[in-house]
Design brief:
The protein is mainly beta. It folds into 2 domains: about 110 residues, Immunoglobulin-like (Sandwich), CATH 2.60.40; about 80 residues, Roll (Pdz3 Domain). Helix content is about 5%, strand content about 45%. The longest helix is centred in the last third of the chain and has 8 residues. It is elongated and about 75 Å long. The termini are far apart. It comes from Streptomyces nigrescens. It holds the Pfam family PDZ_2. InterPro entries: PDZ, PDZ_sf. This is PDZ domain-containing protein.
Length: about 210
């Protein structure tokens, strides 16, 4: 029989703070060690596993990208799993603009149940730059970049020509805004830029 399902399905803003998913105890008596394996839902990452390990020893390992985690629980004698198990997750900034429901998995001593979250819809991102069309549908030329903007922080410069965003061609300003409307505020997106006869890729975080 699978572990009891999570008690709550949080709504996550992207980017935004982490929320904790709570799994109730299943009141089974187990021998130790117990291995708990967690896979984060798509477009989320695990930030913390705030569990109560009094009376036992817990070793918690969260992957560097937060996409998975393993908890090893040990004790000298069998114990009944009556305490809740908590997993804190946050949405990635690059989650789809429309949001949606996504599921990973929570496996407690070989009993597996989904780990499900809702990601809220976002607002389309923008860049505080002045642009014009390059000749012959050759891209979007940057006229100016405010020094305090995220574009300046990413390294965009006047006279750069944006030819693609995340691999999607931007031959003119109209397509540039169509592509930008696919990504939310806070997303970091690769821009393909022509500069001085060279093609470079710049990682740009989108602004309101």
């Amino acid at each position: 029989m699978a572990h009891p399902p999570q008690q709550n399905v949080p709504d996550l803003d992207a980017p935004g703070p982490a929320h904790t998913v709570v799994y109730p105890g299943d009141n089974k008596t187990r021998n130790y060690p117990i291995i708990v394996q967690i896979q984060a839902p798509q477009y989320t990452h695990i930030t913390d596993i705030p569990i109560d390990c009094s009376g036992a020893n817990c070793s918690i390992s969260i992957a560097a990208d937060g996409k998975s985690a393993t908890v090893t629980i040990t004790a000298n004698t069998p114990m009944t799993s009556s305490r809740p198990f908590n997993v804190s997750v946050a949405a990635d900034a690059n989650a789809p603009l429309a949001g949606g429901q996504y599921s990973g998995s929570f496996t407690y001593d070989s009993d597996t149940t989904p780990l499900t979250v809702n990601i809220t819809p976002g607002a389309p991102g923008n860049l505080q730059i002045a642009t014009s069309n390059a000749p012959s549908n050759g891209g979007v030329r940057i006229q100016s970049v405010p020094p305090t903007s995220s574009g300046a922080s990413a390294g965009l410069q006047p006279n750069d020509v944006i030819t693609a965003i995340d691999g999607l061609p931007t031959p003119n300003i109209g397509t540039y805004y169509q592509v930008m409307n696919n990504y939310r505020v806070g997303a970091t997106v690769p821009f393909t830029v022509q500069r001085g006869g060279q093609t470079i890729t710049v990682q740009v975080t989108l602004e309101p």
